[in-house]
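Bump. Still looking for Glycosyltransferase structure tokens.
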Amino acid sequence: MVPIYNVEKYIEKCVRSLLEQTFKDIEYIFVNDATPDNSMYVLEDIISEYPSRMKNCIIINHSENKGVAAARNTGLNISKGEYVIYCDSDDWIEHTMLEDMYRVTQEQNAEIVTCDFRMAYNNHCVDYHTVDWSEDKIASLRNYMTYGWTVLWNILVKRDIYVQNKLKSLEADAAYCEDFNLSVKLLFHAGKIVHLDKILYNYNQMNGGSIMRSLNEKTMHDEQVMYLDVINYFKERGVYQDYEKQLGWRILKSKQEWVLSVKTYDKFLKLHPDSHKYIWSCPYINLKLKIMMWSLTHHFSLISRFMLFLRFLKHGK
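Sorry for the wait, here they are.
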């Protein structure tokens, strides 16, 4: 399932890698999210070169740009396959990816299979090995929540998990960290999960328009929306206490910038105060920020203000 928006320069490599998969029984769903460029013309030209795949290719057009979450949901709603996987339209996959991952589902009776990936830069690549899964589901999901790359495009998911639990991408005014939001829910509901220790996905780092290349206050807000939604989801199911620390760490990471200005101290203190008990153990935050956070939460704001003053003297901001 591939959402498409403004990827004219990259979509050919993506689509060819999909249509040239060694696995034969694939349903391809391409969602045109009202792309303003020639991406769809490129897509249609490439599909025409693969007549054996054409009958399995579905193209859906949004009349207006709705964002990647809505595009994924559009595709999910019409999907009929036994398993679902997403691919970003500026990335590409290895030719055996779907065959390799599906084979694991059959051999090990897995409902979800994850694989490893590489970051593809202009002149080099960096390999990433994702989280292993054990029979201790809670410990494994905690480990996953603290991992830096909680994405959807490297997990093959049994479609029944989506259907039975009414899961979909969160369509909020937030685009960053939406993968975390959905992947955590999917993994929570899955039965057997298997990590395939093989690099099969190529994450394109040459696209300057990617959201991952433009982090700012908006993405910080998006993180908070997605994390708070997961917190509420787990609270409703009575399992929040199992993952409170890891979600607290995530919240602290998302609001750490607020301790760097007196004007945003109140915002820091009010957003999910449950997280404050995990300041010292949070792996995402440096010692200076931890001291400032602890000072604020224990009503010693003068310490935080003094550290801000020292920062100003050193950096001028």
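The chain has a mean pLDDT of 94.

Edit: fixed formatting.
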